């Protein structure tokens, strides 16, 4: 009788035992190991390697800061930071600004919502190179746009939209807008619509509803969308080469890194350019997050409750 009781108790303990523990140790933490290995292998190790390499300049007697001294002493290198910001910041602001009204219009389910959303997202699936090739045909002096405007009598001579700032900016606008739109759509659909309806019953106009309800709840989404869209635009490379002036107005910082790596074969200097590039992005992202923290201290999402 006693042995049967002991066996039953053991069986009960076995049945109630947590399958995620072995010998009292929680094995669920092991599930994060593959993800950590991927992050370390693809992000942490390359960053540490590049950081150390940037302080290891070529040459026997070179000082450890020689690469950074060269970057900030040669105009053709340090001017790339300003040129890239001049390209990425306006395009990012324009993409986010255009994405907000489109996201608001398409935030509620309707018959054509899915079709219109799909059409707006298609450019993101094409890739920057394919978009650039299309724009080369469309914006060329004898392209569709100029020929149409000339035949309509709206222009006396073709517009120069390639091999300058505007071609690259237009390419970044086309490829960056779908991403900003999808980000803002996810935030606008997360705001409880009953909040605006309740405000309307109290006499709030649509503009007041947007200013007092939607805009505060969208501040976190606007900030994150701005940061991610900016990082994407700041790393522009194919469009700057194919549509811009790689030796002039659109000589962005990624072109400088490419030249150091594959024309001068100076990998240490290329790492330095990459470090400056990353630091610039971090400064802009930090400023954006700081402004969000200064202007909004509520929850980071506007859930439907």
Automatic annotation (TrEMBL):
Domain ABC transmembrane type-1: 81-288
Membrane spanning residue stretches: 29-52, 85-106, 118-140, 165-187, 213-237, 267-291
Localization of this protein: Cell membrane
Membrane topology annotation: Multi-pass membrane protein
InterPro entries, per database record: MetI-like, MetI-like_sf
Gene3D superfamilies xrefs: MetI-like
GO biological process, alphabetically ordered: transmembrane transport
Pfam family, one: BPD_transp_1
SUPFAM superfamilies: MetI-like
Gene Ontology CC annotations of this record: plasma membrane
Keyword field contains Transmembrane helix: yes
Keywords: Cell membrane, Membrane, Transmembrane, Transmembrane helix, Transport
Primary location class: membrane
Family as reported in the entry's similarity comment: Belongs to the binding-protein-dependent transport system permease family. CysTW subfamily.
PANTHER family, alphabetized: INNER MEMBRANE ABC TRANSPORTER PERMEASE PROTEIN YDCU-RELATED (PTHR42929:SF1), INNER MEMBRANE ABC TRANSPORTER PERMEASE PROTEIN YDCU-RELATED-RELATED (PTHR42929)
Name of the featured protein: Sugar ABC transporter permease
């Amino acid at each position: 009788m006693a042995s049967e009781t002991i066996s039953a108790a053991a069986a009960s303990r076995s049945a109630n035992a947590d399958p995620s523990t072995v010998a009292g140790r929680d094995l669920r933490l092991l599930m994060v190991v593959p993800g950590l290995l991927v992050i370390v292998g693809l992000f942490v190790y390359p960053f540490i390697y590049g950081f150390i390499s940037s302080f290891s300049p070529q040459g026997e007697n070179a000082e450890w800061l020689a690469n950074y001294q060269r970057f900030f002493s040669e105009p053709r290198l340090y001017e790339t930071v300003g040129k890239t910001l001049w390209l990425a910041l306006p395009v990012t602001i324009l993409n986010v600004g255009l994405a907000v009204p489109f996201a608001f219009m398409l935030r509620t389910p309707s018959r054509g919502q899915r079709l219109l959303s799909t059409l707006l997202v298609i450019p993101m699936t094409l890739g920057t190179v394919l978009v650039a090739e299309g724009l080369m045909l469309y914006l060329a002096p004898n392209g569709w746009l100029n020929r149409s405007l000339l035949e309509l009598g709206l222009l006396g001579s073709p517009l120069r939209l390639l091999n300058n700032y505007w071609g690259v900016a237009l390419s970044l606008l086309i490829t960056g807008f779908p991403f900003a739109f999808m980000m803002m759509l996810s935030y606008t659909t997360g705001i409880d619509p009953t909040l605006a309806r309740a405000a309307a019953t109290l006499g709030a106009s649509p503009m007041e509803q947007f200013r007092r309800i939607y805009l505060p709840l969208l501040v976190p989404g606007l900030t994150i969308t701005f940061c991610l869209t900016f990082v994407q635009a700041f790393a522009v490379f194919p469009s700057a080469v194919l549509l811009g002036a790689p030796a002039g107005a659109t000589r962005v910082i990624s072109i400088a890194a490419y030249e150091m790596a594959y024309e001068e074969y100076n990998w240490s200097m290329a790492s330095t350019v990459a470090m400056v590039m990353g630091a610039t992005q971090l400064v802009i992202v930090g400023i954006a997050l700081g402004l969000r923290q200064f202007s909004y201290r509520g929850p980071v999402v506007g859930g439907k409750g």
